[in-house]
Amino acid sequence: MIYLYVFLGFFAIIFCFLLYIFNTAFYNPPRKRHKKFNMDREQYYSLGDKVKEPVRFVKEAEYEKITIVSNDGYVLTGKYFHYKDGAPLDIIFHGYRSDSYNDCGGGYKLAKDLGHNVLLPDQRSHGESEGNIITFGVNERHDCLSWCNYASNRFKDVKIVISGVSMGAATVLMASDLDLPKNVKGIIADCGFSRPIDIILEVGRTMGISPKIASPFVTLAAKLLGGFDIHKTSSVQAVKNAKVPILIVHGDDDRLVPVNMAYKIYEACNNKKQLLIVKGAGHGLSYIIEEELYKKTINDFKTAVINEDYSIFE
How far apart are CA 230 and CA 234, in angstroms? Predict the structure, then answer.
């Protein structure tokens, strides 16, 4: 009988650990969405109002609320900002436990300055979109495809550039090998991670949790409690078969997603590609730290892929 109690106690400990991983990493019901993921506060607070300005810029703009249905039945919500009929469209995806206001203000401003229309989706299990499970791009990549198909059907031949920040960057990178509409011309990924498991283990490592110990439990929590395979795809895997050119941006002082992940993604990409490493920039802060360089690189890339002039890649 003692062995049964030992077994049940061991099982209870394992299950509690799995539940902790699931709640911490993957579970994001509406009641938890007001709690934003904490970045490196030192890096953010040191920049003061420079970080807040892009947020105010997009919050003050008028938009049309849009809803679509994902391939697995969730109602997804987005904000469409119209500038001009027939103008190119930027679809920008926000990051983990965040929203389009906090993550996409810089991208929104650059797009509007170029005269582009902008669509800012709420990722599944974020904002007003349905769902409770964050899958770190595994299922979100199909949502990205759904948004692209919606835009292509609504705006016909308008040329589209998709981009994202952090998990949003990983989302668009993982969508790069899907059957995107032909009018999707390029992808911009700012501080995306190489693989879902990599970033979870990296965050766990900063909390003192051994990656070797955590890895099988993270995989099991995702499968048993989240209902998805965390190893099904990744940024480095998808870009090997990318259908469009890719620009990768990363700060070399990123303390959340290590800059070496950007190099791994860039090296794996088999399409036309560019890499911008911003010196001294933390996670998602490249636009703030080097605004002119960031703006020129982004604008040159967009202009090139929209006009199908690929000389900048030579």
Answer: 9
